[in-house]
Amino acid sequence: MALGAATVALAAGAVVGTVGTASAAPQHHQPPRPSRHCVESAGHWTWVRHSGFRDRHHRWHAAYWTRVWQPTHHRNCHR
Known about the structure:
This protein is of the alpha+beta class. The protein has one helix at 2-23, and strands at 38-50, 53-54, 60-61, 64-77. It is 28% helix and 39% strand. The N and C termini lie far apart (71 Å). Residues 1-24 form the signal peptide. Keywords: Signal. This is Secreted protein.
């Protein structure tokens, strides 16, 4: 009985050992190449107007314009 248990344990260790070495093998996968037909659109600058306001001390602050980056998360694909 002890000899049978030792054989099973040895066989289980051999199986686990081969699974461990198989998963540790180097992978030769290439990263996906970007398509020649698609172009990533990064975004653009746009002007935003901030309206004038009166603060809590009743002082008037005039309106002003600022530039804001607006990212676009889409691809332009032309075939």
